[in-house]
Amino acid sequence: MTEQRRILFFVEGEPRRGLSPASRLRAYQYAPLFAEAGVDCHYLASHPPKYFHNRYWLNWLRHRARWVYRGLLLGGWCLMCLTRCWQIHRVRPDDVVVLQRDFLPNPWLFLEKQLARRSTWLIFDIDDAILEQNPRKIPTVLGLAQRVIVATPYLRAQVVSLNPNVTVIPTPVDVDSIKPAPHPHASTPPVIGWIGTSGNFVYVKSIEEVFRQLAKTTPFRLRIVSNRVHVSDYPNLPRNMMETVEWRLEDETLLLQGFDIGIMPLHHVPWCLGKAGFKLLQYMAAGLPVVASPVGFNCELVQHGVNGFLADSPAEWQECLSRLLQDPALRLRMGEQGRQLVVKEYSLRPAFARFLNVINSL
């Protein structure tokens, strides 16, 4: 059935930008497989990117020239609307349309309604607890869709009462691209690594005291990989402990392979309960042990003491990191277990097969 219809993805940004990883991982990542299956698939990206306001220079203006910032923000949204209107006009009634989250980072709903009027087959894809962000807008969008795809069982429980046609497809990992280093190494000192967008720095900062205390007894380096990184963002950490690296798509696998331990701290709040744990999947695919907060999908991915540790309190974080830093053999065993889990349950091709099943059900 899929070969007779076009698939149109409305995505948040271009794949090489660090501001919208969901576009790359839950849409563009499927492109080679669609081509292999002979499916006519097109990607319609937001221009400017949906989260353009998170760029460093705009944040600088926000605090120093508020009216200029507001003008640029409004102008960006208007340009985004014009681009989206033109893209929606391209939709044919027999197209299968996949809308990634909502169109705009504000309460405006007219674009989603316009899309629903032109599209017979609309799939709404969610990988975060966006219902928490906009409890008025998102239920309406869910009601417009014929199918809903979510990244975790928690998200399914959130939306199933608003649209019962829900399928869980975790954000997949291309295990042929992200893999353990060909020659396992142990950095000296070991590297604790975190990878993610700058908007999530707050979670790393929440365990700064853990790093300070740990540094008193155990040598290590803390390496932050992100779309925008400056050591000055971490004024409470000693500079000789920190490394910051700008994220680049072509370097991602090498950057992950340069870690010895991967971390994913989170807060106990509803927004974090909906997180899909993709950092953990990346770390595990690269053969790394992990330490993560016992929040949401993290609890399903991390088998405590097998492929990593779940740590809640500062004392638990310090103990788990200390054990891994001091025991290279333990890091290797846990990394192997994590890799096996990702290959078996969270790799790209099985996720793509489930995605095609959703399309074929329309």
Walk me through the structure:
The chain is of the alpha/beta class. It has 17 helices and twelve strands. It has helices at residues 21-26, 31-36, 56-64, 66-89, 110-118, 130-133, 137-144, 153-159, 201-205, 208-215, 252-257, 270-273, 278-285, 298-301, 314-326, 328-345, 348-360, and strands at 7-11, 41-45, 96-100, 121-126, 147-150, 166-168, 191-195, 221-226, 242-246, 261-264, 290-292, 308-310. The strands form two sheets. A six-stranded parallel beta sheet has the order 2-1-3-4-5-6, sandwiched between helices. Helix 8 (153-159) links the parallel strand 5 (147-150) and strand 6 (166-168). The longest helix has 24 residues, at 66-89. The radius of gyration is 21 Å and the shape is globular.
What is the fold-level CATH name, i.e. the topology of the largest domain? Rossmann fold
* Helix content range: 40-55%
CATH class of the largest domain: Alpha Beta
**CATH architecture descriptor name of the largest domain:** 3-Layer(aba) Sandwich
The 3D shape can be described as: globular
Structure class:
alpha/beta
Largest sheet at a glance?
A: 6 strands, parallel
Number of separate helices: 17
The total tally of domains equals 2
Output the CATH homologous superfamily of the largest domain.
Answer: Glycogen Phosphorylase B
Residue fraction in strands:
5-15%
Radius of gyration: 21 Å
Kindly state the number of beta strands: 12
Residue runs with pLDDT of under 50 for 5 or more positions: none
The helix/strand order is EHHEHHEHEHHEHEEHHEEHEHHEHEHHH
N-to-C CA distance: 9 Å
The largest beta-sheet arranges its strands as 2-1-3-4-5-6
Average pLDDT across residues?
Answer: 90
